[in-house]
Specification:
single chain, Spore Coat Polysaccharide Biosynthesis Protein SpsA, Chain A, 60s Ribosomal Protein L30, Chain: A, 2 domains, eight-stranded mixed beta sheet, 12 helices, 30% helix
C-alpha cells in the first residue's frame, strides 16, 4: 500500500509529561496501565487498523531504551518508523510528517501517544471523513460544563456561553500534502503557538470538518489520570474474579541526636535535634519502603540498601522509596494507598502535613488523596516520650494484576 491515496499515521510521543510527576519508569507515555505501557496500547490501535499503511512514532532522543521496552509489548517493530522529536510538539509533528514524505500518502492521521483508548471505530470515522472529500477532520466532544473566565485566576470575571464550543481530540486527519505544507509554512514563519494540528490547518485556510469524538478517548495528563486508567484496565482484565489486593506494613525508629532539623516524609523540618542514621534517617520513608516491599515479598530496606554499604551514607531516602515503588510496578502492582503514622513528642507535624502528603504523592506517582500522614505523641512514655527518638508506622495497599514474582 505505497501508492498515492494510502493513509499514514503520526503518533506523537516525545513529551516529558511533567504534570504526571517524575518516576524512574519514565515519562507518562511509558507508564504501565493494565500491565502494558501507555504508548504500546496507543500504537497497537493504529497498527491493527488495516487502512493504515505507514506509522511513524516520534520519541524523545533520551527515550530509545524506554521505547524499545514498550514496543516489545506489542507485535514488534513491524513497519514502524521511529524518529526523534523537537523541543516543542509542533516540531515533533513536522519531523514525523517529513519522515513519511517518500510513502506517497493521500492522507495522514496525527495522534497523541497518551490517548491509549482511541477506538478502531473512531479511526475509521476520521478516515471515512477524509475519503469523502474533506481536507481535514477533527473529532470533538461538545462542552457540557459551564465555562468561567478569570484574568487573574482569583475571581470570576464572567461566564462564557458554551453553545457552539467543543473540546478537540485526536486523531486529527488531513490531506497529507496540505498539512505538511502548513507545518512547513508555520516553521518558516516562526509561529510556534499552535495548540494542535487543526489550528495550523485553520491558520492556512484549510476547512476542518467536525466529527463525533468519544468520551473514552481521554488524554492521560496527570498521575491521577494514569492511575484511573490502570484501575480501569486492571478490573476489566480481572472480570468477575476478586482483585489481588495486598497490604504491607513497615516500622522504623531512629534516635534523636544533636542537630538543627529532622527529615520526615521527604520534608526538612527545623528542630533542636536531628535524626541519627546511615542515610538521612527519614523514618517515615523507611517504614513506607518496607511496607511496599512487603506487598510483593521482596524483603526489607536493609536487603536492598545495606547500612554497611558506604554509597548510601547520607543518602536521601526518596531513593529507597522510588526503588520499592519501581519493584512493585515491575511485579504488576499498582499502589492504591500509602498511610504513615509518625510517633514523636516534637516537632509538630500538623503544619507540614500537606507538604508531606504532596511529597509522597510525587515519589509514588499517585494522587495526593491516596496519601495519608498522621502523627501522635507517646504520652511522654518510654524513649519516644523522653524525646530520645522518633518512630514511624506505615501501611501500603497495592493491587496486583498477577502473582508477584511469577
Amino acid at each position: 500500500m505505497s501508492e498515492t491515496g494510502s493513509i499514514g499515521a503520526v503518533i506523537v510521543a516525545a513529551g516529558r509529561g511533567e504534570r504526571a510527576g517524575n518516576r524512574q519508569d519514565g515519562p507518562k507515555q511509558y507508564r504501565s496501565i493494565g500491565g502494558r505501557a501507555v504508548l504500546a496500547r496507543t500504537l497497537e490501535a493504529f497498527r491493527n487498523n488495516p487502512q493504515i499503511a505507514k506509522t511513524v512514532v516520534v520519541i524523545h532522543r533520551d527515550d530509545h531504551e524506554l521505547f524499545t521496552r514498550a514496543i516489545e509489548q506489542t507485535d514488534g517493530p513491524g513497519s514502524l518508523i521511529v524518529v526523534e522529536g523537537g523541543a516543542e510538539r509542533q516540531q515533533s509533528v513536522l519531523n514525523g510528517l517529513e519522515a513519511l514524505e517518500s510513502a506517497k500518502l493521500g492522507h495522514v492521521l496525527i495522534h497523541d501517544g497518551v490517548r491509549p483508548f482511541v477506538s478502531n471505530e473512531l479511526i475509521d470515522r476520521v478516515i471515512g471523513t477524509l475519503q469523502s472529500g474533506e481536507q481535514a477532520a477533527l473529532p470533538v466532544i461538545a462542552v457540557s460544563d459551564t465555562l468561567k473566565k478569570s484574568e487573574a485566576a482569583k475571581h470570576v470575571d464572567g461566564t462564557v456561553p458554551r453553545s457552539g464550543l467543543y473540546g478537540a481530540q485526536t486523531p486529527q486527519g488531513f490531506s497529507y500534502r496540505d498539512i505538511l505544507d502548513a507545518h512547513r509554512a508555520a516553521a518558516e514563519a516562526n509561529k510556534s503557538d499552535f495548540t494542535d494540528d487543526c489550528s495550523i490547518a485553520e491558520w492556512v485556510g484549510l476547512p476542518v470538518a467536525l466529527i463525533d469524538g468519544e468520551p473514552e478517548n481521554v488524554k492521560l495528563t496527570t498521575a491521577r489520570d494514569i492511575n484511573v486508567a490502570d484501575e480501569k484496565l486492571t478490573f476489566a482484565t480481572a472480570g468477575t474474579h476478586l482483585p489481588d489486593v495486598r497490604t504491607g506494613n513497615g516500622y522504623d525508629v531512629h534516635a534523636l541526636v544533636a542537630g538543627d532539623h529532622v527529615t520526615l516524609c521527604g520534608v526538612d523540618i527545623p528542630h533542636d535535634h536531628g535524626l541519627s542514621g546511615h542515610s538521612d534517617a527519614d523514618v517515615a520513608l523507611h517504614a513506607l519502603t518496607d511496607a511496599l516491599l512487603a506487598t510483593c515479598g521482596l524483603g526489607d530496606i536493609g536487603d536492598h540498601f545495606p547500612p554497611s554499604d558506604s554509597q548510601w551514607a547520607g543518602a536521601s531516602s526518596h531513593i529507597f522509596l522510588e526503588h520499592a515503588a519501581g519493584l512493585v510496578a515491575e511485579n504488576g502492582g499498582t499502589v492504591m494507598n500509602a498511610d504513615v503514622t509518625l510517633i514523636c513528642e516534637a516537632p509538630k507535624i500538623g503544619p507540614h502535613r500537606a507538604d508531606m502528603r504532596s511529597k509522597l504523592a510525587e515519589i509514588l506517582g499517585i494522587a495526593v488523596e491516596r496519601c495519608s500522614v498522621k502523627a501522635t505523641t507517646n504520652e511522654k512514655i518510654g524513649f519516644i516520650g523522653r524525646r530520645e527518638g522518633i518512630a514511624a508506622i506505615a501501611t501500603a495497599t497495592v493491587i496486583y494484576r498477577s502473582n508477584p514474582n511469577g
